[in-house]
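Quarterly update, task 2.4: 4'-deoxy-4'-aminopyridoxal-5'-phosphate-bound model.
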Amino acid sequence: MLSLVMLSIIVSLLSKVHVQMELLPYFCDFSKSFRLQNLQKDHRPLKIVRASHQYMYDNTNSEYIDCVNFVSHVGHCHPSVVRAAYLTNNLEAITPGWDIDWGEPTYPQQLRHTLPEYLDTFLFCNSGSEAVDLSLQLSQLYTGGTEAVVTDNAFHGSIDSVHHLSPKVFKTNNITKADWVHIIPMPDLYRGEHRREDPAAIDKYLAEAREVVQGARQAGKVACFISEPMLIIPGCIMPPSTWLQEVYKLVRESGGLCIADEVQTGLGRLGSHFWSFQAQEVNPDIVIIGKTIGNGYPMASVITSKEIAAVLGDRAKEYRCSQVMNAVGSVVLEGLRQEHLMETAASVGTFLLEELLKLQHKHEYIGDVRGRGLMVGMEVVWSRQSRKPAQEIAELIVNKMREEYVILANEGQERNILMVMPPMCFTQENAISLIQRLDKVLTELPKHRILKEEESSLLSYRILPGICEGRLGIIQPQKAGEEEDDSDGFQNSKNMDLEYRQSSYHDLD
Ligand code: PMP
């Protein structure tokens, strides 16, 4: 009877794993194969069958340098992570809410060493979206407020409450903005309304932010301001620290809490700091981190003070660190430390940025290069002077780079920003390969008759719409008539899931 109960729990967990199928390659060797739709949205999706370190391999065993899978923080299928998950999954198939004493998890204490002292309470859940939702609940309960302030073009996740905090989602999907959400403009000094050339640009952005926060105060009581400390999602926009510090001040004066979404920027990616809020010299009330802490294993954390977490009362136990999270999170931190990955992020990141800046001088299509550590964005424009976003060129570059065995992604509202956010084991040799191949692709662009004034001729290069809107989510439903072509024997995800379940059951027997 007991084994039947256990079996049914495992079945339900495995069916959840199916939902997370796109995560598997980041994390586990049992990923088998999948279509890399969210990276390559052309007619011939990549057929990745395995991945290791910063590399992915397709069904012909060709090796690709992965420059975008930031979730595979310490490297794809890191053996210690896979092993930790495997061993602890064998021990515990119980959801975190269950009141079972497995002993005190050590992972929160390890994370604590990386944080300011006041951030001493760790609530665990399964995704960044869930963490953002929880942070919203915490701030509303703690302040008694309802109003939330967000930055324009932000994306904080894919569940309903969180969609409202994500202008990138509600703008793209024509969803009406919720009344309780207030949007401040991003301090985009390259393309925004106030630019680098204007010495008062930041003051102007701040004046606009002040107005929005005042509007939020008039609408109700301010609960929170949520933002990435460095705005990666809208296209690697690096706000000056003074801007963020001032916005935090404005929000706190209005009674709200400040939430730092470190899903993309946390865990040493900057090289110089473990968290990007530290580099910005702000002290958030709540920090959110997502799947990078599990190298792709579905775990996330809301980190806050005891005082704020206390508003949850008894519900806090729903968010305890499970044995699997404890083991997986610990080995990811250990991997970071032992393999000196923060040092890598600092040195390789600096090298990459310098080399890309050189490339910018050589190629008219690169309008701006910015970033820090292993997160770099390049604006692709029709000309440096016009700064007109060149989405088609960016897409073409991504696809040409794929032919050069380098995976890049185009991001941002205009989808013209090339992003480099690789696993943290990305080496200087990888950076050199990326730069050389990018140089080659950019040099060859005119040969493809891509002329500034011939934008319309690019339509022939246009990529199938509707498969996916970018690396960072907003996956669009596939349209009728756009069925996957599996005629070459490539397994689709349904077969993959079945096979995975069968082999798992077989192992249990
Ligand atoms: N915040 C940011 C900044 C993100 O990039 C994402 C998704 N990558 C999320 C929140 C949501 O995380 P998840 O996909 O784990 O729900």
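Highlight for this quarter: The longest strand covers residues 366-372.
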